Amino acid sequence: MSVKSRRLLIIAEPVVMLLTPILLVFTTIYDIEQTALLSSLIIIFAMVPFFARFELSKPKPRDIVPLVVLSVIAALGRVAFAPIPHFKPVSAIVIVSGLSFGPQAGFMTGALSALASNMFFGQGPWTPWQMFTWGLVGYLAGLLKKTFLFKKPIFIYIYGFLSGFMFGWIMNIWYIIGFIKPITSTTVVGAYIASFYFDVTHAVATVVFLIPILIPWQKKLNRIKLKFGLME
Amino acid sequence: MKNIFSIYHPLVIFTYIVSALAFAMLTFNPVYVILSFYIGSLYSIYLLGIKKYISTLKFGVVLFIVVAIANPMFNHQGLTVLFYNPWDNPITLEAFAYGLSSGGMLVSIFIWFNCYNGLINNDKFMYLFGRILPTIALMLSMIMKWVPVTKNRISIINNSQKSLGLGVNMGTKKQKINRCIRVTSILMSWSLEDSIETADSMKARGYGCTKRTSYSVYKWGTHDIISMFIISLLVIVNGVLILGGYSTYEYYPTFSGNLFGVANLFAYGLYIILLAYPLLLEGKEEIVWKLLKYRT
Q1: Are A182 and B140 an interchain contact pair (Cβ–Cβ within 8 Å)?
Q2: For residue B193, which residues of chain A lie inside 8 Å, CB to CB?
Q3: What is the mean pLDDT of chain B?
Q4: Quick check: ipTM above 0.95?
Q5: For residue B253, is the peptide bond before it cis, meaning its omega torsion is within 30 degrees of 0?
Q6: In chain A, at which end, N or C, are there fewer CB atoms within 10 A of the end residue's CB?
Q7: Residue A66: its chain B contacts at CB < 8 A?
Q8: For chain A, which domains are there?
């Protein structure tokens, strides 16, 4: 793959990330009847540049296996904590992956954890949304790592807490723009109030899992990275 | 239970189920919603049995009721006022009908996903996406393999910790948490080191040297070509009919749109054929079988 097209794809990622919400808003403004389908398609296409860049970079086996291990643990953790609704360790693990291996790896871990764990729970209309959102959680964690804020763990915990809300809020979009008509401030606020309890549970769960694993797992992953010379 | 679609090529099955899902999300026309719901229900029961269907339906009915009640509560558009709620906001028939219709759409999407899970197993999914996204598909299949392996490892670690007197179920709460963390950290090191070994082994065997090939049992047959043709044709015709606005049914400000004109009935007929296509195939097989038995 040429350097030029790779550079193009690197630019495409943040562009798509910004374009997605704008497109979603447009579908609602123009009052298209098929918003439930259209919004799902937008989300699926939003993931294309990430997957394309990953595929085209022809990753070496050593670069993909740590992501697989993290996705397995995330998926297993989700299955293990399934009895408590919305209390899941996936976000915490995805954040650690993004911090240790960079934004792209964070995205892949998130998206794959969602897809793989749904292979156990059954796929649903939520699958592409979960893939995108968990991918985003990992991607942003990888990006923010370079900022001075993430030098202190407390800010990472805060990010984990906020990511729980981000997850719920993005997941709400499909329902709101697909199934509520007309969309008014009351209906939107109503939907967000309805999901508030679940979002808080998810946010708290993320922090609860992040506190014990963040430092030890990062240490382990960094050690593995150093020992085997991964992702250079 | 073996269904007729299990002998078809995954691409045919995928085209069918994705179009059924897409059409279920495509229109709020009540007749389309009802048709999609009933045919989806029939097929789901046929594929996965009544028990699985009912458990999906339970979840669906709760959502349905929430949506059907929430919509008129928060939306006050519409001309036919039924009554006023305690906050003096009108509850309208139109908002209520829209709630019913969108709730019904939501339920039928869940039911069609039930059918999806019955039709496209992990093997077929890998086959379909393995060509386009080889690395991702490889990672997915590695995940599927490592989930049971990792489960097994967790129990091995737990047992050895227990025999050291450090079992996760023993001790004070603080000790328990610390031991859980210990187990996950042992698991991490073990899995990661082991995965690197797998990676090296993959590299040694020439991973990434040429294009990946994959073993598959799926072949295109005449029946696949015929079915693919029929399904594609039905999808195009139905798509044109629905997106062309023949089925548009407006709820606000008041109900408008023709539900039972001749053209509408024709469109519904085509929609039924598309959704019930595998069930029709199933019926055809049954009839052929009966006839053959009758002749001998």
Answers
A1: no
A2: 224
A3: 86
A4: no
A5: yes
A6: C
A7: 192, 195
A8: 61-228 (1.10.1760)
